[in-house]
Specification:
The protein is an all-alpha fold and 290 residues long. Helix content is 74%, strand content 0%. The chain has one domain. Helix 1 crosses helix 7 and helix 3 packs parallel to helix 12. It is globular. The chain is built from 12 helices and no strands. Keywords: Membrane, Transmembrane, Transmembrane helix. It is found in: Membrane. It is a multi-pass membrane protein.
Length: 290
Amino acid sequence: MPDSSRFTLPAVPAVLLAIISVQGGAAIAKGLFPVLGAAGTTSIRIGLSALVLLAVVRPRFSQLQPAQWRAVVPYGLALGAMNFLFYCALARIPLGVAVTLEFVGPLGLALTGSRRLIDVVWVALAGAGIALLAPWSGHNIDLLGLGFALAAGGCWAGYIVLSQRTAALLPGPVAVTVGMLFATLPVLPFGVASGSLSALTPHLLLLGALLALFSSILPFSLEMQALRTMPTRTFSILMSLEPVVAALSGWALLGEQLTLGQWLAVVFIVVASAGATATSPRAQPAVGSE
């Protein structure tokens, strides 16, 4: 039997590869929007991810207790809503801008209830970043896309809280698998109603499978592997790099150009997120992105 340790990445490269994988998946998703739309693309991603996880993890549903169901169902619904709203935003605004605005959710959660002076700095930086991205700043950002991204960030904050509760009651792989099944519920009706799923071809299914791999299966696996040896705080600081990687991915893979003001907004929110994590007196939630 081959030594599985040969295939284990060190923690930091694993997290960085997970971030790159997620943003590469977002680029694939944006390529599917003209045919499948945001709802159809989200349905394919979450549906295929759920099927793969079911086949690998094989959770025993009959053994789940009522308290576990009460935790995992809202966790899955928040996961589905977060992904759907993010893709709705991604259909209207650049990838780097969408990810940057979405980060406001977990940043707000990290700062909730804080009365420390240093946290006022992080709030001010994040607020300046949002102001630089707002339509009134002259960057012609779609207002509905901006709203979708901020709503996705709100769902991300809720997902973090619910994932902590669920992780305390269920093993990680089981929680993610069962949660992914319920994540289809707020998405699939929109996918079916849009009629876009009837346009599926073998080629689109293959792209959907790659989307599920790069956006869900691979990054979840890499993050779980990294968290076995990496402190939660370090993980969260590294995850704060996601808006920068998203902006670079949008430029390299989609030809999306950001203005100087938009790049400044990305930097402001990244610094606010990393700073809030680094100076927090308590460990930040170790949760990946959209």
